[in-house]
Design brief:
The protein is an alpha/beta fold and 239 residues long. It has helices spanning 43-51, 71-74, 92-102, 107-120, 136-148, 166-181, 193-196, 216-222, 228-234, and strands spanning 3-14, 17-28, 32-36, 58-63, 66-67, 77-80, 154-158, 185-190, 201-206, 209-214. Bound molecules: adenosine-5'-triphosphate. It comes from Gracilibacillus caseinilyticus. Keywords: ATP-binding, Nucleotide-binding.
């Protein structure tokens, strides 16, 4: 398998605060890669660097063999931020049209894509509703639809299921598996242990450092424990 993301000795500080330190990590093409860590561990900062939104102070980041940040990469990456970047006064459809325009999609393609992604996230019957009348879960689903509508090769999802009920969370994960089957690489941040178990590989992040990186099974086996939570503690992380 080929590497789609390679990070070499990446560090980032905000002022005096060192938020990421000496990260060496790679993501393989076609896998679901999880970043697990407590609040403030640096997950959002790390995915923003991969997405080209933030630039590291030190080290190199390559996505699809191109050095990040690169304008060329923007169209092959789908990014779903932690807080929904939606226009509340617009309808769901108008929001999707706005994102399609940003991605440079033409009218005919745009129409087809909106229909498709609305079906995927089960919002077809709510497309004409203004987003301010949406529930939290509906907004997350709409954000996900916006992130996948230009069929990116790689999807970066920052806590995509936060505040979402277990049933809907399950259906969103089924969608992730479907995208994976289509060859999409997915990078997902979470602090939910059972979600971490669903990933092909995981990086455990603590205080800006990767303390372990492997399959969930290997991470547990290495510490002779039965849950990721126990493994996290055994590696010296805080739960
Ligand atoms: N723009 C910024 N300026 C200054 N400090 C920042 C900035 N962005 C993040 N930080 C700091 O970097 C650290 C890591 O933040 P980050 O958002 O990456 O963590 P996280 O693991 O995603 O947390 P959470 O799970 O709560 O979202 C925190 O201490 C945070 O205060």
């Amino acid at each position: 398998m080929q590497q789609i993301v390679t990070m070499k000795d990446v560090s980032l500080s905000f002022g005096k605060e060192r938020v990421l330190q000496n990260i060496d990590m790679s993501v393989q093409e076609g896998e679901i890669f999880g970043l697990l860590g407590p609040s403030g561990a640096g997950k959002t900062t790390l995915v923003k660097i991969i997405a080209g939104i933030l630039e590291a102070n030190k080290g190199d980041v390559f996505v699809q063999n191109k050095q990040v940040p690169s304008l060329q990469l923007l169209r092959s990456i789908g990014y779903m931020a932690q807080s929904d970047a939606l226009y509340h006064e617009l309808s769901a459809k108008e929001n999707l049209e706005f994102f399609a325009t940003l991605y440079g999609m033409r009218k005919k393609k745009r129409k087809k894509a909106i229909k498709h992604v609305a079906e995927v996230v089960n919002l077809t019957n709510h497309l004409d509703k203004e987003v301010r009348h949406f529930s939290g879960g509906m907004k997350r689903r709409l954000s996900l639809a916006a992130a996948i509508m230009h069929t990116p090769k790689m999807l970066i999802l920052d806590e995509p299921t936060v505040g979402i009920d277990p049933l809907l969370r399950q259906s969103i994960w089924e969608e992730f598996y479907k995208l994976k089957e289509q060859g999409v690489t997915i990078i997902v941040t979470t602090h939910v242990m059972d979600e971490a178990e669903k990933c092909d590989r995981l990086a455990l992040l603590r205080n800006g450092s990767v303390i372990a990186c492997d399959t969930p099974e290997e991470i547990k086996v290495a510490k002779k424990v039965s849950t990721i939570e126990e493994a996290f503690l055994a590696y010296g992380g805080e739960a």
